[in-house]
UniProtKB/TrEMBL annotation, chain A:
Protein name per its UniProtKB record: Arginine/ornithine transport system permease protein
Domain ABC transmembrane type-1 per the UniProt entry, residue ranges: 12-218
GO MF term list: transmembrane transporter activity
Gene Ontology CC terms: ATP-binding cassette (ABC) transporter complex
Taxonomic path: Bacteria, Pseudomonadati, Pseudomonadota, Betaproteobacteria, Neisseriales
Pfam families, A to Z: BPD_transp_1 (PF00528)
Species, as recorded: Chitinimonas taiwanensis DSM 18899
Spans through the membrane: 12-34, 46-70, 90-107, 154-173, 193-217
Protein family (similarity comment): Belongs to the binding-protein-dependent transport system permease family. HisMQ subfamily.
UniProtKB/TrEMBL annotation, chain B:
Compartments in which it is found: Cell inner membrane; Cell membrane
Record keywords, A-Z: Cell membrane, Membrane, Transmembrane, Transmembrane helix, Transport
MF terms (GO), sorted A to Z: transmembrane transporter activity
Biological process according to GO: amino acid transport
Protein name stated in the entry: Histidine/lysine/arginine/ornithine transport system permease protein HisM
Top-level taxon in the UniProt lineage: Bacteria
PROSITE patterns noted in UniProt: ABC_TM1
Subunit-structure text: The HisPMQJ complex is composed of two ATP-binding proteins (HisP), two transmembrane proteins (HisM and HisQ) and a solute-binding protein (HisJ). The HisPMQ-ArgT complex is composed of two ATP-binding proteins (HisP), two transmembrane proteins (HisM and HisQ) and a solute-binding protein (ArgT).
Organism from which the protein derives: Chitinimonas taiwanensis DSM 18899
Topology with respect to the bilayer: Multi-pass membrane protein
Database matches in PANTHER family: ABC TRANSPORTER PERMEASE (PTHR30450), ABC TRANSPORTER PERMEASE PROTEIN (PTHR30450:SF2)
NCBIfam families assigned to the protein according to its UniProt record, in alphabetical order: HEQRo_perm_3TM
Ranges that cross the membrane: 20-43, 55-77, 97-115, 203-224
Amino acid sequence: MEEYVLNILKGSVLTLEVALGSLLVAVVLGLLGATAKLSQNKLLNWLAGIYSTVIRGIPDLVLMLLIFYGGQILLNLLLESVGYTEYVEINPFVAGVLTIGFIYGAYMTETFRGAIMAIPKGQMEAGLAFGMSNTRVFFRITVPQMIRLALPSFTNNWLVLIKATALVSILGLPDMTMLAKQAASAARGITPMAPMLFFLFTGAIYLAFTTISLVVLKQLDKKYSMGVRRGEF
Amino acid sequence: MQFDVIFEPATLKLFWQGILVSLKLLVISVSIGALLSIPLAVLRVSRNKWLSTPVWLYTYVMRGTPMLIQVYLIYYGVAQLDIVQANWDTVALFKPFKDALFCCVLAFTLNTCAYTTEMLAGAIRDTNHGEVEAAKAMGMSKWQVMRRIVLPSALRRTLPSYSNEVIMMLHGTSLASTVPALMDITGAARSVYSDYYLPFEAFITAGAIYLVLTFTLVGLFKLAERRWLAYLQPRKA
């Protein structure tokens, strides 16, 4: 029994890696998506609109299966067309991270778009008037203020994302959930209670992750809201 | 692309039955979850710690763990216990666990009920103080204030965020495909994929079905908001 528990604990590291890796992808895609949605370019607007609507309208699991199995075939077809005939298998970790990142990038797009829109326009205009370039205005003026405005919904997205990583177990990545399931069926012969105990244990680790995230993000929120007066009732 | 495989009668039938299973799962779990969430939300905002803390704990645990784990816990954990399996023909309490659909509905209901309870509790807390005061001044009892003033308005104000929850649950029902005995939309797509090895065709079809269902739900909730939240809409010129 102990070895199974240790194994699940080891799997929790992979869960965290997948979650943090996808978060990075999601934040980059979210920033790109939000910029595209707010830009003057009609084509970019349209593309970002399709991205955030379609992705948010389809279950994560279906998208994952589509990107994971479909991406595999697509990649090999592409390689074949350039004359590379050997079968290439995508690393499931990379596939999982890119897929979850791609999905949650759509949610982040909306989060960041709302936050950017909430910053007074004069701030950016003042930056431009000072002779800063567009990129510099973005990183010096927009981003620092955006963080505070984006944090509440960023927190939500992160909590949903970390729970969504459980789905990579269906793609065959040995994360915490998959190891728990394997341990459950292996140890069922030892004691019929085993499956239940393993899933409860795994649930408790997820709960610990979400609890720690909430505490840390609350501290961040405090830091970034320094000097902001909230409405009092 | 070989979408003609999708339009073969056998495949179409598979997807159609998948849609029925998904909608059945969604309707049952969302409606039971919503009904249970009303008393739970009232307990959640209660000033009595003995009443509010257990509800808080329940919502905290359900919202802090993946729904996949919850489904596994019930299907592979509880339903596979020897005591349950040995007695499910005789003990009425264990009988439903024989059915995979019931296990999924139980997990989904517990999950959606937790989220809905928190939303509704938030709306109850946000009720305008003056409304409650006025009701008290009219001589209503605490229970009457809750039933006549707070709940009707809180239920309406939960509508926009509740529509998100229902859509999340529609997407959540795709987890039913992880239980062997169930064939929902995702399950149908997975079986088409494994029969024909056509991932794009199978999962794009499933995705399109979910998109249509999602937009239908969004439309229905828009109608519901127009009906019940008309008084909160911005004034039209």
